[in-house]
Amino acid sequence: GIQVEQSPPDLILQEGANSTLRCNFSDSVNNLQWFHQNPWGQLINLFYIPSGTKQNGRLSATTVATERYSLLYISSSQTTDSGVYFCAVKGFQKLVFGTGTRLLVSP
Amino acid sequence: NAGVTQTPKFQVLKTGQSMTLQCAQDMNHNSMYWYRQDPGMGLRLIYYSASEGTTDKGEVPNGYNVSRLNKREFSLRLESAAPSQTSVYFCASSESGPYGYTFGSGTRLTVV
User: Which of A34, B52, B95, B112 is the most exposed place for a label (fewest CB within 10 A)?
Assistant: First the structure.
């Protein structure tokens, strides 16, 4: 099945710093999403981005499907950005999750 | 508000007890899914239903059964709970094909 790898596994930032999270996947996909799981456990859909670039406020994402990776950019990080960021890709029928990047933004 | 609703939010079971987790979506999506999340791990698929009337096993189906009651509702049943089933359970829905998923807020289940 499809393998999804995320890096780095853990990231600690000072408030205001920028960061880049990476997601590599092993096969062609027709669906890629980025999720933020907040400290209360809620999964929040950030981007649906099977290819190209999207931006939403301080967050943006780029997927290069032909090279099988996606990047999530967080600019001017805030403490509320803390949590776990998951990349999930879909091949045939099911969405497969990476193990996530745990982000801690300190004031 | 449109979305995916799961009940209950928290549950404690004794080993051997049974229970059903409920999930309902109001977005008219065809496909629905049950995932579990264990500490330090991503989500793993238990069962999914590509459309009303169909269900299929995911990565970790053992110990679970599902029912797609209608287009809106997809339930997950634990017939005889085991401590290994202590986890956070998420329900999700999507349109058929390459579309994004919407997740419920999760059910935190503890089996003692």
Answer: B112
